[in-house]
Amino acid sequence: MKLAITSKGNKLDSQFDLRFGRTAWFCVYDRELDTTQFVLNENYDSKMGAGNKTAELVANLGVKQVISGDFGPKAKTLLEKLDIKMIVINEEKSSVQDILNKLKN
Amino acid sequence: MKIAVASGKGGTGKTTVSVTLYYFLNHFYNFKVQLVDCDVEEPNDAIFFSDAIKINERKVFQLIPKIDQEKCTFCRKCAEWCEFNAISIVKNLEFADVNNDLCHSCGACKIACDYGAIKEYEQLLGVISLYNTGIGNGLTEGKLQIGSAMQTSLIKQVKNSIVSSDEIIILDAPPGTSCPVVETVSDADFVILVSEPTPFGLYDLKLMVDLLIELKKPFGVIINKAGIGNNDLFNYLHSNNIEILGNIPFSREFAAIYATGEILKKIPEEFENTYRIIAEKLLAKTGML
Lengths: 105, 289
Hints:
The complex is a heterodimer. By secondary structure, chain A is an alpha/beta fold. Chain A has three helices and five strands. Chain A has a five-stranded mixed β-sheet, with helices on both faces. By secondary structure, chain B is of the alpha/beta class. In chain B, the strands form two sheets. Chain B has a nine-stranded mixed β-sheet, with helices on both faces. Chain B has a two-stranded antiparallel sheet with strand order 4-5. The chains are: A alpha/beta, B alpha/beta.
């Protein structure tokens, strides 16, 4: 099962991004293989519909769960239709690695 | 002759000026004027004509695409063509979806689809009403369907519904400087900007001035509620050589009349003189006098 974490950069020590639709990167974590991969979110500076497009992106990555600080209404609607679980955490100061560590323990 | 009334900031007096000029140009200068309420999210011009009779009401629609899951190959071409990020396609899940709120009804997706999988259906956009106000060519009003974000499409249809005439059309614009305002002023021959001498009034007026310069539209400014705030607005207008069409003094008495909706029935004398000067300047500027 693949899970995505919103991230401000493309490294494990990058800061967690509280935004979903306008996050610059996703850290995609494969629980079975225990591998991570960073994917650029090209929708981060879209004029409109960033949340909608970003939800489509994570679905196309085969992600089943997303961890972020918040989800906008359009993203939420589409992620629900796609049966992708939204997990909200408010850990602005955490790095992606910190969140991965908590998931693994 | 199309004259748009805009402001940037809300609550500066666009509707008061639009309604009053509409009345004055008919009543004192014998023009057949039509008033058009383009503030489709909250139209309120009609409130000031208590005797008005609605003579026509028409629903208007926008076309929204629907994707036929049987014919769709999930190739994503439509999603790539969509400028508004309204279409989501996930091939592995055989998922195709349109977000109606993001769709601008441009029709590109339907042209993009090579498999005939996209059909369009009508979604209610709003209502266009025509009122006989007993004044000139009456009042046309657009009212957006609650929940719709397609103000611009409705304003376009409201403007298209007006029978072109040689007489004067006053377009009462929505507040702000975004797409609905651009649409309202886009084919105006002259724009009246209504401002107030407050920091907010000035800030938003500057945005509006920049917009009109970019659109190459002739314009002038009416200062409403003169006497409140400070001199920054006057200094800005003078140093940028922007014409002041008139100063309407702040009046508590007038605010009370406005609240009853009777601004055309009890026009204070000082206002009458001010509006006559504004009307004459406007007619001279637009070559109607």
